[in-house]
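Hi Y.,

Following your request, here is the sequence exactly as I used it, all 328 residues.
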Amino acid sequence: FLPLAFWPDIVGEFMKFLPITVLFTLTASLAMALIFVPTVGAWFGRPGSQNNESLEAIAADHGDDIEKVKGGTGVYVRMLKGCLRFYWLIVPAAFVVLVSVWAAFGQLGKGVEFFPAVEPEVAVVQVRARGNMSYYQQDTLLREVENRILALDTHHEGENWFDTVYARSGSGAGGNEAAEDVIGVVQLEYADWQTRPKATEIEKRILAETADLAGIRIEVRAQEAGPPQGKDIQIQLRSFYPELLDQTATTLMTGLQEMGGLYNFEDGKSPPGIDWEYSVDRAQALKFGADINQIGNVVKLVTNGINFSTYRPDDSTEEIDIVGRYPA
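Below is the corresponding structure, written out as tokens. Let me know if you'd prefer a different format.
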């Protein structure tokens, strides 16, 4: 079982715990057989602890008359004796049962599925937009999406669809794995699946309610079971000429969109922005006690801002950055 502990790929990540468990079990069994059982046997089997009935049972086990063995061992011995008498029937029957189990699983089985599709408990709505927008502009667009979702949660009969709705704006709101153009996310915690429609129906309603919002794209990502896999189709482009990557990615994206049957497109193209270049007069900077870092921080206050610290709200498990930036 030791080689199975190094099973590669996603299947190995999921199945390696089985051989590891077997290895620990066999190791414990070996220690039990070599250390604990002999010790316990020496304690209970010391001279003078047997009676006549126990001695007769031991003699029957090691003698020719096994019919005298009592208890569960006797039942097993007599059953085994009957099977050996009809070995010509038992062996083919065992083979037929073995083949039948494999054949029945192949015909009636549903296959192997490590992570079955179940109703998700949470979902993330990503708001994507391109452009050199300030935090206030990003927050305004995100609030519009949030209001549509909150209105969707209250304008229907029955129980609420969401237990909590949490919105966060900013370029880094989607995390490290999010696209470059994500300006905010709305995290949804679904209510009990018995009191709401299916998550797929709710996702369709969210996309329908936000379809008329201009300048942004909405993507709803449900909770994934098992190791994160990302999207079903992932294409990576490499080139010795970086200036050709954006054009090639655009052409490829257009072709995939024309195919049909695909949705939630995402690319890693650099979002449009402004490149800042500044020249420092070192003599003048030394007069005022300024250095390169201080000048760079001033430029950051105009662009993306400076990260001063982080804090975690009471209703969140993730830390939120405290960023300072000049007003737009």
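The longest helix spans residues 17-44.

Thanks again,
Q.
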